[in-house]
Design a protein that fits this description.
By secondary structure, the chain is α/β, with parallel strands linked by helices. It folds into 2 domains: 124 residues, Alpha-Beta Complex (Aspartate Aminotransferase, domain 1); 239 residues, Type I PLP-dependent aspartate aminotransferase-like (Major domain) (Aspartate Aminotransferase, domain 2). Helices cover 40% and strands 14% of the residues. The protein has a 7-stranded mixed sheet with strand order 2-8-7-6-5-3-4, with helices on both faces. Strands 9-10-12 form a 3-stranded antiparallel sheet, with helices on one face. Strands 1-11 form a two-stranded parallel ribbon. The longest helix is centred in the last third of the chain and has 24 residues. The protein is globular, with a radius of gyration of 21 Å. The protein starts with a helix and ends with a helix. The structure holds 4'-deoxy-4'-aminopyridoxal-5'-phosphate.
Length: 373
């Protein structure tokens, strides 16, 4: 039976495919140890807070005016940051930003998807992807990843040949599995899309890219040779700025020009631009935590394996582990002990975000009790 919302909606012209749907979102609960949405556990330092506050005050003095619609200063700062982080030097015209990489992805599907077009991905993967497709009336096709959560390249090729998608969405590292795409897989997917009539944009979503292990490449390295490749990043994770809502991408300037058509005018507020630029000026300090989080991630993988659990290799700031006959009971048991993780991924698995050493101790202690490890 439809809930009260659905019955009230019957009197409204809500789109047929939206009636009765629940909004996406993990529970926001007030518990001591939050390890459920892959945030950075480290708040900005007081120095960074002071600089952000100063930049916001400056921006406030001009809030009677609309912000810079092209946010060129922010795009230049993001390009400079990427040059240091990845060794790839994008031009300002190759960089685009929006309110989180969620909005980046929406812009991409608004420009390259739409009615009569298809977006393709491979599950398990980020659960917002089908929502961007739905919201832009893009047909959604989802294949499966292999048992070890890597891509089965023959199957990927077969899906691309059969469905001729205009957009392929691949998260690397993938959420919720932590699996990164090796260079050969990125190149194979790009090669497979060469044959799509009408063209195909390959989006590599590197929301967790900065946490990649040594030897794992960034898809940024392939941009120079592939005008249909888009690499998406965010300030929400490694940068520890989830509350500011800043995502960005790097692609051929022709891709960016298409996004400039679909974005709302002034979509990035002057306050957002000021916050992001002030934080980017402290990139070194904010990124200093990434090494520690990576080490804590590797230690968590090792600890879970030592206790006999199955753990997916992770290049991200979270770990998918299992398998539990009743994963909900384990999730609830942890929550009862003040530790919130995420019940996501294939049946039997759970995902924990990497927190501070103290938070990970609380997680391990609670898991030992709950799962009897
Ligand atoms: N892509 C992936 C794979 C994610 O896991 C997330 C956040 N959970 C996002 C994109 C969106 O992040 P944001 O909008 O904060 O940049």
């Amino acid at each position: 039976t439809p809930g009260p919302a659905a019955s009230a909606q019957r009197r409204l012209p809500v789109r047929d495919d939206l009636v009765g749907l629940e909004p996406y979102g993990a529970p926001q609960l007030d518990v001591p140890v939050l390890l459920n949405v892959n945030e950075n556990p480290y708040a900005p330092s007081e120095q960074v807070v002071a600089d952000i506050a100063g930049a916001v005050a400056d921006a406030a003095r001009g809030l009677n005016r609309y912000p810079d619609r092209e946010f060129l200063a922010l795009r230049a700062d993001l390009a400079a940051y990427l040059a240091v982080e990845s060794g790839v030097h994008p031009a300002v015209e190759q960089v685009w930003a929006a309110n989180g990489s969620n909005e980046i992805m929406l812009h991409l599907l608004q420009a390259f998807g739409g009615p009569g077009r298809t977006a393709l991905s491979f599950a398990p993967t980020y659960s917002m992807y089908p929502e961007y497709a739905r919201d832009t009336s893009t047909r959604w096709v989802v294949g499966r990843r292999a048992e070890d959560f890597t891509l089965d390249l023959a199957d990927v090729r077969a899906h691309i040949d059969e469905h001729a998608p205009s957009v392929v969405l691949l998260a690397s590292p993938n959420n919720p599995t932590g699996t990164a795409l090796p260079a050969a897989e990125v190149e194979a997917v790009l090669a497979a899309t060469d044959e799509v009539p009408g063209g195909c944009v390959v989006v590599v979503d590197e929301a967790y890219g900065e946490f990649r292990r040594a030897g794992t490449p960034s898809a940024l390295e392939f941009l120079a040779d592939h005008p249909n490749l888009v690499v998406s990043r965010t300030m929400s994770k490694a940068f520890g700025l989830a509350g500011a809502r800043v995502g960005y991408l790097v692609a051929d300037p022709a891709v960016v020009d298409a996004l400039r058509v679909v974005r709302l005018p002034y979509h990035l507020s002057a306050v957002t631009q000021a916050v992001a630029r002030a934080a980017l000026a402290h990139a070194d300090e904010l990124m200093a935590q990434v090494g520690g989080l990576r080490a804590e991630r590797d230690a968590t993988v090792g600890w879970l394996r030592d206790r006999g659990l199955t753990v997916a290799d992770s290049d991200a700031n979270f770990v998918l582990f299992g398998r539990f006959a009743d994963r909900h009971a384990v999730w609830q048991g942890l929550l009862d002990r003040g530790v919130l993780i995420r019940e996501t991924g294939p049946e039997g698995w759970l995902r924990v975000s990497i927190g501070t050493p103290e938070e990970m101790t609380a997680f391990r202690d609670a898991l030992v009790e709950v799962a009897g490890l």
